[in-house]
Design a protein that fits this description.
The structure holds 2 protein chains of 2 kinds. By secondary structure, chain A is of the alpha+beta class. Chain A is built from 9 helices and 21 strands. Chain A has a 6-stranded mixed beta sheet, with helices on both faces. In chain A, strands 13-12-11-14-20-21 form a 6-stranded antiparallel beta sheet, with no helix packed on it. The longest helix of chain A is centred in the middle third of the chain and has 17 residues. Chain A is elongated, with a radius of gyration of 24 Å. Chain B has one domain: Orthogonal Bundle (MetI-like fold). Chain B has a two-stranded antiparallel ribbon with strand order 1-2. In chain B, a hairpin with a 2-residue loop joins strand 1 and strand 2. Classes of the chains: A alpha+beta, B mainly alpha.
Chain lengths: ~375, ~290
């Protein structure tokens, strides 16, 4: 199924939930909608599903206008952030419910339910009630209910956010495999850049009800078109340093200078903002071309086996992601190194003018 | 291994225990004391053993009052619970209508119980009451002071008017607690309105419905003030419920011994029924076939 959204607006009262949404979802494609809370991700799914009617714009399914058509007449399945199952029905009856409502023969229902349950590893729990299951098992049941219909549009609204870390990893891998076997258009929302990267496919970056950028996920990650996209699609958010280009040299703040090489060679003189992701800042120099930044440690955060070191360079806060668990004394001066090929360059309007090219990733 | 060294929690529970002892257990023990004694006057008490209990249990009028009470409480549950659910389902979900509905519903709950009796006494009087006069004008003879059926209808009307709002408010709270996503999921499944009620709303209201049924059963089983003011237990004994009969023995005839024995039996009956209701409600509909 191909789904096309043309100029969709959704306005409730005075609040703009969606503005000027244009999207083309090819048959069998997978899309991750990335955005912070209240970016309009759920509103977008609801409009796609047909639960809400857009204020303006058209929705085309297989080139047919389906804008005003209700959810019942569309081939849609949805998984929610909360674990939504019928409380008084067993896992089997829960999974079977969409098929029963569709009037499928009993033998077929039985076969399809068992197949789907086996795929999600809940085939041993079919007689249980949702309240007797763990959170992960409840969400597996909800996902099975969505998959069993074999709907042409599968929507998942932050399905893993209420699960603990380990379960999330596990289910994410399984979901990816399941999506690959399906011909349905899959749309998956998340607030986490890491999750978006792991799921792959295409990405739609949203903010304040608008689509900022859409495209293949690695493409958007490497070339975030605006500073806002770069911020949303980096965790922790990308570091920005104001600077300019003059006399064939790039100046980052007052103290850092570097020649205009590689991807920055074409930059005209003028003011720019330079961005670098925190995993490209290092406490040790790794190449003779590295540029050194002298800064003061403000905060050390340990996250798993990584340490996020917040530093202050000329009153700009930067975050360095360092492997291993470290504790640096606060207020101490450190040298941080960055290779110029990792710099993103934005013009004063926040539009991307230069981004690291392929060679930078391959070389290092 | 048990932890004997960490029993200090008892000291924290102690104040509550003392308060409960003085407010409930001590008065209850007084009743137990009365129920096994024959009291002829101050200082003249004789141990009577189980005599009062035997007398009370063989009292034909008490049996009648008990059946009447069971019928009354049964009807109350049969009418108020479905009606309360229907009102809760029909209430608006947002906007100014919500506050309007909540206030209107809460009004009967704020009126003192004996005033409720008085309101309905006047409201249904065939000579001056708005409802009484209207019904009689319509050609139907209606007089709750003369006809037992009319008296029952009036008491039921009053009870339903007084307490259905409580059931409705509890159910409304239960309904509001259901996340919107459940309704969306049902919509995507293509479930009918009845299926949404049967498989989402009703199971999700289990908790509040259990409370509503228990409260309404206990309260209606102990009803006193409203029918006492409205009918005084009459005409004849037709609306003499257990509490009214009990007060007749204790206050009218000053038979403290039988009244105390009766009170204890009454207490045990309420406890027993509440326990049974609770057990049944815990298990009913938990596991079902579609």
């Amino acid at each position: 199924m191909a789904l096309v959204l043309q100029g969709i607006d959704k306005i409730v009262g005075r609040e703009v939930h969606l503005k000027d949404i244009h999207l083309k979802l090819a048959p069998g494609s997978r899309h991750v909608v990335l955005g912070r809370t209240l970016a309009g991700k759920t509103s977008l799914l609801r409009v796609m599903a047909g639960l809400d009617r857009p204020t303006a714009g058209r929705i085309l399914v297989e080139d047919r206008d389906m804008t005003g058509v209700g959810v019942r007449k569309r081939s849609v399945a949805m998984v929610y952030q909360q674990f939504i199952n019928y409380p008084s029905l067993t896992v089997f009856d829960n999974i079977a419910s969409p098929l029963k409502l569709a009037g499928m023969p009993k033998a077929d229902i039985d076969r399809r339910v068992r197949e789907t349950a086996a795929m999600l590893h809940i085939d041993n729990l079919l007689d249980r009630l949702p309240a007797e299951l763990s959170g992960g098992q409840q969400q597996r049941t909800a996902i099975a209910r969505a998959l069993v219909k074999e709907a042409q549009l599968l929507l998942l609204d932050e399905p893993l956010v209420n699960l603990d870390y380990k379960l999330r990893e596990e289910l994410r891998v399984e979901l990816q495999q399941i999506f690959e076997q399906r011909s349905a258009v899959v749309v998956y929302t998340t607030t986490e850049p890491a999750e978006a990267l792991m799921l792959g496919g295409n990405i739609v970056v949203m903010d304040e009800g608008r689509i900022l950028q859409a495209g293949p996920t690695p493409e958007v990650y490497r070339h975030p078109a605006t500073m806002r996209v770069a911020e949303i699609f980096s965790d922790p958010p990308i570091n920005f340093i104001k600077g300019d280009v003059r006399d064939h040299r790039a100046l980052l703040g007052q103290a850092i200078q570097m020649p205009l090489n590689g991807h920055m060679a074409h930059l005209a003189p003028g003011p720019y903002t330079f961005g670098v992701r925190c995993n490209h800042l290092f406490l040790k120099s790794t190449s003779p071309e590295d540029v050194a930044i002298r800064a003061v440690v403000e905060l050390c955060e340990i996250n798993g086996s990584e340490t996020f070191i917040h530093i202050n360079y000329e009153n700009t806060r930067l975050v360095v992601q360092d492997d291993g668990v470290h504790s640096l004394k606060l207020g101490r001066e450190v040298m941080v190194y960055v290779h110029p090929c990792h710099l993103f360059v934005y013009d004063p309007e926040g539009k991307l003018v230069a981004s690291p090219d392929q060679s930078c990733y391959v070389d290092r | 291994m048990e932890k004997w060294d960490d029993n200090r929690a008892w000291f924290l529970v102690l104040p509550v225990f003392i308060v409960v002892a003085f407010s409930a257990i001590v008065p209850l023990m007084t009743v137990v004391n009365y129920s096994v004694q024959d009291i002829l006057g101050p200082g003249q008490t004789y141990f009577a053993g189980t005599e009062w209990f035997e007398e009370v249990l063989h009292d034909g009028r008490l049996h009648e009052a008990l059946w009447r009470q069971l019928l009354f409480s049964g009807l109350v549950l049969l009418i108020e619970i479905p009606l309360g659910i229907m009102i809760a389902l029909a209430m608006p979900k947002r906007g100014w209508g919500v506050s309007a509905c909540l206030v209107t519903l809460a009004l009967p709950l704020l009126i003192p119980w004996n005033v409720i009796g008085t309101i309905w006494l006047i409201f249904t009087r065939p000579d001056i009451g708005m409802l009484g006069v209207a019904i009689n004008k319509a050609g139907i003879v209606f007089d709750h002071t003369a006809s037992p059926t009319d008296a029952w209808i009036t008491v039921m009307l009053m009870e339903v008017w007084h307490w259905t709002p409580l059931v409705a408010l509890l159910c409304y709270a239960g309904l509001r607690a259901i996340p919107e996503a459940y309704y969306q999921a049902a919509k995507i499944d293509g479930a009918s309105g009845w299926a949404v009620f049967r498989y989402i709303q009703l199971p999700k209201m289990r908790g509040v419905l259990t409370i509503a049924i228990l409260l309404r059963f206990m309260d209606s089983f102990l009803i006193y003030a409203e029918p006492f003011v409205l009918t005084g237990g009459g005409p004849g004994n037709s609306t003499t419920f257990l509490s009214i009969y009990l007060v007749k023995i204790a206050m009218g005839q000053f038979d403290l011994g039988p009244a105390a024995a009766f009170s204890l039996i009454y207490f045990v009956i309420v406890l027993l029924f509440s326990f049974i209701f609770y057990q049944v409600l815990q298990n009913v509909g938990r596991r079902e076939k579609q």
